[in-house]
Amino acid sequence: MYDWHDGGWGVGTWVAMLFVMVAFWGLLAVLVVYLFRATTGRHESAGPTERASPANALAILDERFARGEIDAEEYQHRRELLRGS
To answer: How confident is the model over 36-83, as pLDDT tens digits?
Structure first.
């Protein structure tokens, strides 16, 4: 009969199986993340963004006020700050 030391797999085989298993699960995780990003349609880059112009800032401020995110007092205060710069 075979026991632990006669004809069994050596330590190198177990280490190789460990690396293959870690590589398999790592590739599976990368595939899941890739599919998630591909299906959500979010393709935002992490690069530098364009600097907002004062006209864009005022338009964003107008939208926030229209959605009710800010009140009239805060809207007027921020509008004065943007026009003053």
So the answer is: 998 887 655 555 556 667 678 889 999 999 999 999 999 999 999 988
Does residue 61 contact residue 75 with C-beta atoms inside 8 Å?
A: yes
For residues 79 and 61, is the Cβ–Cβ distance under 8 A? yes
What's 49-69 look like in SS3? CCCCCHHHHHHHHHHHHHHCC
Structural domain total, the chain: 2
Are residues 59 and 83 located together in one domain of the fold? Answer: yes
Question: What's the predicted TM-score (pTM) here?
Answer: 0.41
Which runs of E-coded beta strand occur in 11-82?
none
Tokens for 36, please give them: 């998630």
Domain boundaries, position 69? 51-85
Which residues does 83 contact at the CB level (< 8 Å), separation at least 6? 54, 58
